[in-house]
């Protein structure tokens, strides 16, 4: 039996009297691009942060390739690359130097791997340019390059097309499909834009007011 890439079982999060997420359950099949859609404020980012172990759920559990994210955080999170709310890059450093710095913090990232991920996201020719000169789309691509550094099996992207012009959006969605088709990754795509998930995803759930409605 194949173990799901990501699984949540009745996870909930309350902040005082606010029920941000209620009894959310989902399962991401290995080999899929999974769409997680809902309007801004629906609870998507809170749900993802719980499933990544970044915040504690008020109830419920989450597993990544069968490993409980809260009981076995180190082993579970080692399989994940994530772009959540955009990383803060150093604007006066090049994209390559930013990746090199983050790679040193996590350890074991070679210069060859940095070159490889820059090529994968289409920044091979711009890797030595300072980030302050990057467009929003290029910054998003650099964020995905950072998420790919440690060769994750599961890639989680929170609003990767946010703020992009139509051309950059099309290139971003093409890149996401390539992550599955060319590199064999499992992808979770969170978005408030229905057309983004319609164009890329194998399966979709809709979140509204912290509850899955479809």
Q: In a nutshell, what does this entry contain?
A:
This protein is of the alpha/beta class.
Instruction: Kindly state the number of beta strands.
Output: 10
Main sheet specs: 6 strands, mixed
* Alpha carbon gyration radius: 17 Å
Low-confidence stretches: none
Provide the succession of SSEs.
EEEHEEHEHHHEHEHEE
- Shape call: globular
- Read across the widest sheet, the strand sequence of neighbours is 6-7-8-3-9-10
Strand content: 25-35%
What class, by secondary structure content? alpha/beta
- How many H/I helical runs? 7
Indicate the mean pLDDT.
90
End-to-end Cα distance: 26 Å
The share of residues in helices is 25-40%
Pick out its properties.
globular; six-stranded mixed β-sheet; four-stranded antiparallel β-sheet; 27% strand; alpha/beta
Outline the structure in words.
- It is built from 7 helices and 10 strands.
- With 214 residues, it is an alpha/beta fold.
- It has a domain at 89-151.
- The strands form 2 sheets. It has a 6-stranded mixed sheet with strand order 6-7-8-3-9-10, sandwiched between helices.
- The model has no long low-confidence stretch (mean pLDDT 90).
